[in-house]
Input
Amino acid sequence: MSGHSDFQPSNPVVKWIERRLPIFGLMHAQAFAFPTPRNLNYFWTFGGILTFCLVAQIITGIVLVMHYTPHADFAFASVEHIMRDVNYGWLLRYSHATGASMFFIAVYIHIFRGLYYGSYKEPRELLWMLGVIIFLLMMATAFFGYVLPWGQMSFWGAKVITNLFSAVPLVGESIVTWLWGGFSVDNATLNRFFSLHYLLPFVLTAVVFLHLWALHVVGNGNPTGISVKSEQDTLSFHPYITMKDAFALCLFLIVFAFFLFFMPNYMGHSINYQEANPLSTPEHIVPEWYFLPFYAILRSIPDKLLGVVAMFASILILFVLPWLDTSRVRSAKFRPIYKQFFWLFGINCVVLGFVGANPPEGTWLLVGRIATAYYFIHFLVIMPLVGIIETPKPRPTSISESVLSKKPADGGGGKDPAAQAAE
Ligand code: HEM
Output
């Protein structure tokens, strides 16, 4: 699905290139003329916001590296040097750290948008699955990045998570030694994590290209879940979507700036301002907020190996989501029962987040176990069953009908009141 491009360059240089490599025509078809459903709401602006976040993280990261030292003896001090001595180093570092949190806020909104509007359903299954790969890569990148300042939480977080692999029968201990590059989390570990933290964003970028390619083959979904049927249902990407995305990005940047300038450490842990000390274990080892629900699942299961399996399964289950949901109706707007369960699932994820932030004992442990069970029940029982038993609400026959029927009673033409009165 690409826009009808009647791109005719007048500039002789562009003409010359276009005859040999039709890159401008391609860009025109995909980023200007690309037909986009006319009823997209603001939840569809988060893809663009995510693209911005990815580019911003790469740029701030590359400049940070110019002053950072990936060595266990110097890493912590080099970050302090960036904060205190490098011109605008504080801004650079806080942009990157707060940027990571903002990136995750945006990706969670993007994923939950997909869950609500059934964006993962036919024909967007592969687009969704590429999204899940992106999500996994984002988590790996954030995990490696958090180790780099070599603070207490960096060190102990790395230790806890890498140690999980020791639960693998027979070869577990060897895997952990191999991951560490030695017999404890040390300089070799920091170095390889640094290397991977630099590498993965570029792998991520490549997968984002596939994600967007898949998007441009099947086209955007939309809040009604009804497929595009005629030209009347769509608008060209430019200027309509580009302007709307730009406006949404400005709003997002206001929130970003608020955290960046007024509470840059709000989403982090103060203990990471203490240098890593292998001889002093912090009282609570807690990951960054965006990992908390998964951390809760890990700790809710009494067996270490099963806990690790459940944690990975809670993400990998998203790959088969298109086949677990048996409803043919995409959007939850027309699915009265699924809609309730969607909100319950959202609340359950927030509960898991709180559980992950607290010690796994007493009431927290019990709540964590119930919420973990519910997480899997949602996907494995509720989604398949609700799709079968639910009677969906009637849907509009087309996207343009759904838009025009919302307009005032002037027939949708949007005539001005004076003209109407004159008639
Ligand atoms: C770096 C991360 C990501 C970037 C840059 C990105 C980019 C985009 C863009 C630009 C769009 C089109 C606009 C929109 O629908 O908002 C889109 C659509 C979509 N994305 Fe992503 N995405 C990312 C992560 C993810 C993840 C983690 C998932 C799911 C697990 C996902 C699933 C989808 C789906 C299903 C659509 C189609 C939605 C529809 O049109 O109904 N994306 N993405």
